[in-house]
Amino acid sequence: MTEASADAAMFDPVAWRLTPQEAENAKTARELGENLFAGRAEKWDREAIFPTQNYDDMYKAGLLGICVPKENGGLGAGFRGYALAAAEIGRYCGATALTWNMHVSSTLWTGALADDLDLTQDERSRHNSTRKLHFKRIVEDGAIYSQPFSEGSAAAAGFQPFATTAVKVDGGYKISGKKIFASLAGHADYYGTLCTLHREGKPPSRGDTLYLAVPKEAEGLQIVGDWDPLGMRGTVSRTLLFDDVFVGDEEELMPQGVYFKAASSWPHMFLTLSPAYLGIAQAAFDFTIKYLRGEVPGMPPVKRRMYPTKQIAVAEMRVKLDAAKSLWFQTVSEARCKPSKDQVLRAYVTNHTIMETSCDICRLAIRTCGGQSMLKTLPLERLYRDSRCGSLMLPWTAELCLDRIGRESLYEPGEMDD
Q1: Structure confidence at residue 159 as a pLDDT band (50, 70, 90)
Q2: If 0-12 CB within 10 Å is exposed, 13-18 middle and 19+ buried, where does residue 158 land?
Q3: How many structural domains is the chain composed of?
Q4: What are the pLDDT digits (tens) for 355-395?
Q5: Alpha carbon distance 170, 209 (integer Å)
Q6: Domain holding 274: CATH number?
Q7: Domain boundary, last residue among 255, 288, 322
Q8: How far, rounded to the nearest angstrom, does the alpha carbon of residue 408 sit from its chain's CA centroid?
Q9: Fewest CB within 10 angstroms: 91, 98, 245, 313, which?
Q10: Using an 8 Å Cβ cutoff, are 104 and 77 in contact?
């Protein structure tokens, strides 16, 4: 067990009316982050290597199974419970929080979200059978799952079928295609791959999306390309190539077509990237306060808080941070199956707000703390680079969010102009 955390909770359990379980999981994440992850974050960033050590610690603390149902040995957290813990981790290591999202979503989508869907009896029976295997791997063996999504097309944004295809064969499927920006590449034990079932003589359909776990040692799976990006360098998001990769029927993470039902009925499932960036915004604000108070470890105890320009900047940062946190908390609290139009629009607004505000707060932090903040020995330079990546993250980039907010505010489903 790690030492107690000296940092206050991002969301005070009493003030924000958290459940005991939410408060406990967030506390565990905060203690790991402050006492272990924060000190390692520079290494993952500087060397662009995966935070394996952090994952070992999360496994020991039970956090790899945070959204695995309790009956399957996990902690049984829901959407909001995961999000609160992820924000605390993002506060100390953005790359760990972002990649943890890929892993946890594999269990959240197949667990609590799938339980909300209208499935046939056969679909429900098949899904309950196969997910037990995946949950067991995570809880008992510490298996790490990833979610290679992007293909360089409109598929990841939900506008067209995935170009990566699967052909049904005896005992399973054969997968062919490519995934780019595949986080955890070379470090995941299983790649939760979204692909389109090939039907002879029929055009590809989003309704035929398959969600299959590809073992890291599968024949025909290759990891290629370098990874030297602006930020989020510890995600190691290289390219995956699938050349007739066979996976057994038991590797279904969702039965055929169920992912499409989830994406259509549970749109908040695509908001799970936001906690990492909210945590980064909190980290930038926290550092600025410590810096201006002369309380940054390893630095001379020089106070800079008495200058009006610094005070105004801190006030502006606090206004932005509190507004973003309040909107975000409301949205993750109302996440549900078949949300209202207003709730979906608020989810888009929230994702856009978090991604843009995180970067803006980091910008203000650098300007306020001054020249020393550009040094890689301090975290602000890394926080800024990490925050800048948020607006680019599919499937809800900042641009796509604005596009959907405008269009869906003005049009009801099915409406067209003459």
Answers
A1: confident
A2: middle
A3: 3
A4: 999 999 999 999 999 998 999 999 999 999 999 999 999 99
A5: 19
A6: 1.20.140.10
A7: 255
A8: 25
A9: 313
A10: no
